[in-house]
Model the fold of this input.
Amino acid sequence: MDRQKIYALLYEYQRAHPGFNACCSRKGKGQYRRLFRKFGNVQKLSYDQWLKRNAWMFRPDLEDKYWYFDPVTTAAKFARDYENSRTEIVVAVNLYAPRSRLRSEFKKLLEAHHPDPVGDRRWFDEMTPVPISRRARPTALKEALTVYKKRYELPNATLWEVGEAAGVCKSAQTEHGDTPKQRAQKQRIMTAAVCRYLRYARNTMKHVGQGSAFP
Done:
């Protein structure tokens, strides 16, 4: 997986997100203000500036995460530090239980939840503040975004016309010498392809708006 392409596509998806764009125009006010505070103003930041500002969300420093036990004594501490965490687990320990039983239970806990059975743990993309799916396909993401943008540019065009204007699905592009039957078949194929691209792009936009995972 080419991570730089994925980061660049996340930036482009944020710039194309209607709600986030409106929030940036209002200087961080509105429904997506949390996303604005998290990623910054994508209308004003270049990609390099955006990546420099947000790199920590994609490449966490392992050394900063090497701690072992932290007593959680208040609900406020739990909410601030550990609620919805992907890298910690919060448990209650009965201090009056036998130590041998506690050791046994801790062993079971590690076997069930620790990402590596032996030695140091490794970071996975899913453990970062903005998880990047291992199944992310840059080409599909890029083509879906191209179709999504073209749909907004051509709101009155048919779906197959949007696909041709976006330059996707080359085999279904109509040509001057096509017969009426060939042309109709290609239009059906292109329409179905554009529907898939738009569905994929809108689903990805939903994740972008949540600011928690990509795609």
In short: The CA atoms of residues 99 and 156 lie 71 Å apart. Residues 61-66 have pLDDT under 50 and may be disordered. The radius of gyration is 24 Å. The chain has two domains: 3-59+132-210, 65-122.
